[in-house]
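Chain A, query sequence.
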Amino acid sequence: KTDKNMAKKRVAVVVTNLAGSGAEKVALAQAKLFKEEGHDVVLFLVDNVMTYCTDECDFPIVPLTRGKNTYKCMGEIGNKVYARILEKKMQENGRFDIVISNLPRADRVVKHLKHPNRYFVIHTSYKTELEKLKRARANRKRKQFRKLYENEKIITVAEAIVEGFDDLNINYKDAQTIYNPFDFEKIRSLGCESIELQKDYIISASAFRKVKRYDVLLDAFAKVQHNVKLVILAKSDPKLKQMIKKRGMEERVIILGFQQNPYKYIKHAKLLVLASEREGLPTVLIESLILGTPVVSTDCPTGPSEILTGDLARWLVPVNNANALAEKIDEALECDIHIDESVLDKFSKKRVYEQFKSLL
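Chain A, predicted structure.
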């Protein structure tokens, strides 16, 4: 399948690494999307870290360094060093028509790149991030963001992220929202694989990070009335194990770790739950709905309210409220929730590519 109406373009996608977070998965999806549409693509990684399986990627994946954080300690000088390496490696691969950067660390490198057509993809709400910091640190980061994105073209993965940029007085050149692309067929195909879990369970498929609020999720799960297990698809962190032990829930919670194919576990779950206090566009919610698995999520900035629209909006709960989350989980487990295909249409690869195509 290729875009026959357009001459082949050369696309550089840049991301910090492929260590396993949602934004990294999105950068991989962007590269795959352009390649499928017949363009020449190279995916550049600042760090040589790859957790995601890249066996099926029929485009070059080029790390700028051999390891992790090689020049990070050098600050802005380090960013310039990375940018010189990126420039050199790009020249080796020919002239690029567009550069698409993902995540702040990659953005700081691409900022020093002399390229006329570059875009910065913003994957989370910086405004919400700054609100959680102490004043001095928040002010310092706000200045960094203003400098980084001043007079730049940005793409946000949720509409509310643009409003946050405006509130922070970041003087970007141009902003548009392009949702993350999803391969519905592939996700559903992988969801059909068999699993070894027997019991009824609900699932959380978020990395173990503070913003994901596993404390709130576990507090809520302790209050859930239904006899279900909680399956967690995240690396088994000692802190996570301690949180489970502290609540006496070792028998009810299963940590399966990072999975190359999370879809088969999401597909067979009764429900997917997200307890985050902030997000960008949480891909796992969309993937769950594509697989036909209902979702209960915090109504955090940003993303969930743009995904759970129409009748599905009733499954949004306030942030950091374990009681409300528990009640909603129990309610959802009692309901036969219908997921209308039309709410997913805006996340299809075809729709997303049409928007990216206008930038080439």
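The chain is about 40% helix and 15% strand. The chain has a mean pLDDT of 94.
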